[in-house]
Amino acid sequence: MRPEYCEKFMSSQAYHMDKKASARDWFMKGCREDLLNPESDEAIDAYKKSIVLDPTFTAAYVNLGFIYLQREDYDWAFLCLQRATDLEPKNPEAYNNLGYVYEKMGRLGSARQMYEKAFAINSGNVEAIYNIGHISELEGDYHGALRQYKRALEADPHAISPRFLLAHLFDRHDMFDEAIQEYQGVLEKNPSHAKALFNLGNMHVQLGDYTKATEFFERVIASEPNNAEAWNNIGSIYEITGQDEEAIAAYQKSLALNPFQEEANVNLAHIQYKQYRANPDTKKREEIILRLHFILSINPQKTRAKNLLEELTKEGS
Q1: Does 293 fall in a domain?
Q2: Tens digits of per-residue pLDDT, 46-98?
Q3: What is the pLDDT of residue 6?
Q4: Which residue segment(s) compose the domain that 304 sits in?
Q5: Into how many domains does the chain fold?
Q6: Average pLDDT for residues 156-162, to the nearest whole number?
Q7: What is the chain written as a DSSP string?
Q8: What is the sign of the dihedral through the CA atoms of 212, 214, 215 and 217?
Q9: Which of 18, 65, 113, 242 has its CA at 20 to 30 Å from residue 32's CA atom?
Q10: What is the model's pLDDT at position 26?
């Protein structure tokens, strides 16, 4: 190679190496921003700069795609995660990720195709197996979903996700004994699995075991202190068992975490209405009406709120 060409080649190589190193630096900056402030514009900008410097940086596309997913910007999520499949066409995880975007977009047939591609690349890919099952469940195919979830557990008996999905499938079909057994199996692997704890709490409410239900919701809160729905459900149990002041405190805690939660607002209005009926007070009545109007501004079709407002309006006329 002639000396002048050698010099050009060496400088070109150094340039590309520098660009890749800079791309990695921007990627790490994106990871830090994403960790400290999830879904932030700063993280997006860092990942984009990483991609500009190295258009083949698959991990940057994936992380950027998941931020857009969390933002429910599915078009951009699709573009990023499709690019990942272009860069790594033999990577089953890339197709699982793209399938999930399709699933969120409501394109179940396309989602299934992506999950089946992942399975075709690696027939032992547990995520692809239970993802196919989840599509079957969404399509109303109980037996297809059951078959896939069990197949995933045969491939990896320690996997948590397919066991939870199996438990949830049983739960949705009111197969309480089977659902409880599988949820307990999830908790054996992960005692702080909030969704399993929450669903077990709901099931024990249905079974009338309020003590056990409360235990499960309290475990949810121990693992996720800001879980507004768990506080609301504890409030409902207090109300059912005649502990109105404790119920009000729980509903207020739920609303402090999420002021727009419809159920907690309706439940609080309902219990305040009971107190108002026992001890009529104009100020309390106005407070309840204000809360009901707020609920209906969020969801005009909220039947419980409409019915309660009608009762209060009749009493005031």
Answers
A1: yes
A2: 999 999 999 999 999 999 999 999 999 999 999 999 999 999 999 999 999 99
A3: 37
A4: 260-317
A5: 1
A6: 97
A7: --HHHHHHHHHHHHHHHHHHHHHHHHHHHHHHHHHHSTT-HHHHHHHHHHHHH-TT-HHHHHHHHHHHHHTT-HHHHHHHHHHHHHH-TT-HHHHHHHHHHHHHTT-HHHHHHHHHHHHHH-TT-HHHHHHHHHHHHHTT-HHHHHHHHHHHHHH-TT-HHHHHHHHHHHHHTT-HHHHHHHHHHHHHH-TT-HHHHHHHHHHHHHTT-HHHHHHHHHHHHHH-TT-HHHHHHHHHHHHHTT-HHHHHHHHHHHHHH-TT-HHHHHHHHHHHHHHHHHS--HHHHHHHHHHHHHHHHH-TT-HHHHHHHHHHHHHH-
A8: positive
A9: 18
A10: 92
When the pLDDT of each residue in the chain is averaged and rounded to a whole number, the result is 92
pLDDT bucket at 17, cuts 50 / 70 / 90: low
Could you tell me which of 199, 246, 248 has the C-alpha nearest to residue 219? Answer: 199
Answer yes or no: is pLDDT of 14 > 80: no
Q: Is residue 149 part of a domain?
A: no
Go through the chain and tell me how many residues it has.
317
